[in-house]
Design a protein that fits this description.
mainly alpha, 11 helices, single chain, globular
């Protein structure tokens, strides 16, 4: 990796950390950059997952006040996330690399759809909370949804946070801030267990991991302070453009 390529990966890490703090889907920034610099898709995905773990830790710590009182919930949902993330990581390593090349364009397009419809989902969640104030948590359905989101996150991860917010927002009676805090903690569990699995079972580009890690931590702090002031529509537009570039890159490779 040349100096300029390294700086580009670092900048992508900062962008991913910032976008994760605002709307999620930071992988759609870093993953295409790693592909553009010649990393094989599976190696790029694994290295990206490891690199974004510090950013997940930073985001979770940043929301520690909103996590107060959610211990029991996170123990149950965290178990589902851990098992799902482990299964997703296992599938990534065990399935042929050609399967990943075929599946990931579909997953990226799914992630882009989730990013685009996120505002509508957020409005629907808010309306549901107003109409069903005091409704109990949907245990088995919620656990199943979080588990499947964990499988998705362990396998690829783009828009994992958007998916978790949609699932919990529709099935939990709580504020958006507390749901977002829980999302950060669950995404951290998925990313961490997948990263640990990859350490022993996959090829890793450690330069990319380090650059993304440093960038994502800086971006997480930037996103917490500045990102919420940026127009969400502009950020979503940027994510969609970069995601479409990634799909095109994979399809013509």
């Amino acid at each position: 990796m040349t100096l300029w390529e390294g700086l580009a990966v670092l900048a992508a890490g900062v962008g991913a950390g910032t976008i994760n703090a605002v709307v999620g889907s930071g992988t759609l920034i870093t993953f295409p950059v790693l592909l553009a610099f010649g990393l094989p898709p599976v190696t790029a995905n694994v290295s990206n997952t490891l690199g974004l773990v510090p950013g997940s830790i930073s985001a979770t710590v940043g929301y520690r006040r909103e996590l107060v009182g959610q211990g029991r919930r996170l123990r149950r949902l965290g178990t589902a996330s851990l098992l799902g993330g482990l299964l997703g990581a296992y599938l990534l390593i065990r399935l042929p690399s050609k399967a990943f090349d075929s599946i990931v364009p579909v997953l990226i397009l799914l992630a882009l759809v989730l990013v685009v419809i996120q505002p509508r989902v957020a409005r629907a969640m808010a309306a549901r909370r107003r109409d069903e104030d005091g409704a109990p948590e949907a245990g088995p359905v919620l656990l199943g949804g979080v588990f499947l989101a964990g499988v998705y996150g362990g396998y690829f991860g783009a828009a994992q946070g958007v998916l978790l917010i949609a699932i919990m927002g529709m099935l939990l009676q709580d504020s958006m801030l507390r749901i977002n805090a829980a999302k950060n903690a669950l995404a951290l569990i998925v990313n961490a267990v997948a990263a640990i699995f990859f350490l022993f079972a996959s090829s890793i580009d450690w330069t990319a991991v380090l650059l993304i890690a440093v960038g994502s931590v800086l971006g997480g702090q930037l996103g917490a302070k500045v990102g919420r002031r940026l127009p969400p529509t502009a950020l979503r537009g940027l994510i969609v453009v970069i995601g479409l570039v990634a799909v095109t890159r994979l399809l013509i490779a």
